[in-house]
Amino acid sequence: MLDVRKLRLLRDLARHGTIAAVADALSYTPSAVSQQLAALEREAGVPLLERTGRRVTLTPAGAIPVEHAEAVLAALAQADAALAAVRTGLIGPLRLGAFPSAVRTLLPAALVALGRAHPGLELRVTELDPVGVPDALRTGRLDVALVHDYDHVPIEPDPALDTEPLIDETMYLVGAASLAETADAPWITGTPGTLCHTAALRSCQAAGFTPRVRHHADDFSTVLSLVAAGQGVALVPQLAAADPPPSVTLTPLDTHRRTRIAYRRGTGRHPAIAACVAAIHASAAEYLSH
Length: 290
Description:
Blueprint (H helix, E strand, L loop, with lengths): L3 H13 L2 H8 L3 H15 L4 E4 L2 E4 L1 H26 L6 E7 L1 H6 L1 H11 L3 E7 L5 H6 L5 E7 L10 E14 L11 E4 L5 H12 L5 E5 L3 H9 L5 E4 L12 E15 L6 H19 L1
Parallel strand pairs: 3-4, 3-5, 7-8
Antiparallel strand pairs: 1-2, 5-10, 6-9, 6-10
Helix pairs in contact: 1-3, 1-4, 2-3, 6-10
InterPro entries: LysR_HTH_N (IPR000847), LysR_subst-bd (IPR005119), WH-like_DNA-bd_sf (IPR036388), WH_DNA-bd_sf (IPR036390)
Organism: Planosporangium mesophilum
GO molecular function: DNA binding; DNA-binding transcription factor activity
């Protein structure tokens, strides 16, 4: 019978493409990953990997367990959730991840509610860009996380994750009345590689120009301050636009950012996950009602 932990490594290799990338994602050494995959091949009795220099690809036989990996891992997660449901009380660590504007606005009330209702939970929050969420959930570094996408940056569903809608936000142009008049203006965007940076670039490209980026900032409060200081224009979502500097102009656009709650496939009925998801929904509803 195939070892589940080794099967997970093979699944991750199919996703990341190299042993080094798998090792980095899991905080293992490449040697340890190679040894575990070699052991999996011995268990399978057939070659699962082909090695060409530093590259490793799946053989046709190797693709077979990967095809079933997500269903196997989800079934185990469902079994763990069912066991947790018959225990008394919720205890232990619960790891949450979210992007900065959500950590500042949506999570505080949810954390307070969870702490009061389930004092045995050890709530741990990590601030990160949604780009890093799938790997963090897959590897167990996070249990629940907030992800988002934009009209101009849609995200493909991840077979390892389940998600549910949370909020839909209007995007605002900050510092100008229309995108058309910002073609020659300096821009403030997120760090290259973040979804916010990509969303700004694609929004401008959809309007017919490539933005001239002067500053990079990932905290929207910093972005608003830079716009107020005359350093450029920017795009910000509704969560970040609640309390702008008095001199800043906000123009609503016909584009949106959609935030979803994500967790590993099969864990949605785990009592701790379900309690966390419910608390986040309640917090978001309360915040948006003001």
